[in-house]
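This part of the workshop introduces the protein records we will be handling. Backbone structure tokens are a discrete shorthand for how the chain folds in space. Once this layout is familiar, the rest of the handout is easier to follow. The record below serves as our worked example for the rest of this section.
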Amino acid sequence: MEIRERLGELLMVGFIGEEMNASLAAHIRDLQPAGLIFFSRNISGPEQLAQLTHDIQTLALQELGRPLLLAVDQEGGSVARMGPPFTQIPDAVSLGRSGCESVRHYSRLTAREMFQVGLNLNLAPVLDVNTSGSAGVMERRSFGDDPSLVTQCGIAAISATQDENIMATAKHFPGLGRAHNDPHHDLPVVSAEGEELERTDLPPFRVAIQADVACVMTSHTLYPALDPENPGTFSPTILRNLLRAQLGFDGVLITDDLEMGAVVERYSEADAPIAALQAGADLLLVCNDLEKMHLTAEVVLDGLNRGMLDPQDLALSLTRVAKLRKTYLDPPHLADVATVATHFST
């Protein structure tokens, strides 16, 4: 199959609804994405979610010949898309204070429940070191302000998650812990010098890569000491040179949501996907706007046709995504609704 026919595999997209229907089926057939991201709007309970993922994977296997990455943000605290009766996890700062065994315990429980209901990719843990205290945008989502603690807790979360055959994601590279602005709304600027970033912000990611974390998520943040022009998601210096070449990451690199304010205030809908792929991203995350998801697919195809995207780079990204599927989704796992119903009724 030619690269042009596989460009959908560079997309991770959201969707509307809690059940398989003609609209969702068409969404999957038309975009042929690498995966879907689930939000609270897609989840009402374990049995419903198990049925939905079962139906999605059945369709994907029949229509696309491959399973999908089915992702969720289940960090704990305020960022948890799976509500009760799923296990409710304390926020990261509370877990950091409790210690790595608490992190390991909750990560394992979460991964097991995700596996039961057919999800396979957790967009966690957060490896940002919160050096900004109560003023930091990541105050409750970070394990703490000590790089060693964040590293230890992060590795506990990653190993516990991936031991249960759920992919983990280290985020938000190269570190959002110094940010005072929320990239959901506008572009944060981290003014720390390179040596300071190397000493404090990068160690958790370095060790996560050594521990074979499946995915890394980028940060829509400007780091002038690393690249004075381009935010992390759009910086070849940060993604290709620092993350790939220096730190040796060869897993799947996912952008944060391209609909965030930090992106749309700086890049057009036509420019952002191209810039992210040129910088070295493997998967483009578009969470909410269905029209923008389709536009992103069109923009990527146009970028390839116009020579703005290197086919060899795209082939490498497709290979990384395929390797991830081979590692975690071969054979594909489909949720058993009856088993889920029994588990959550006891």
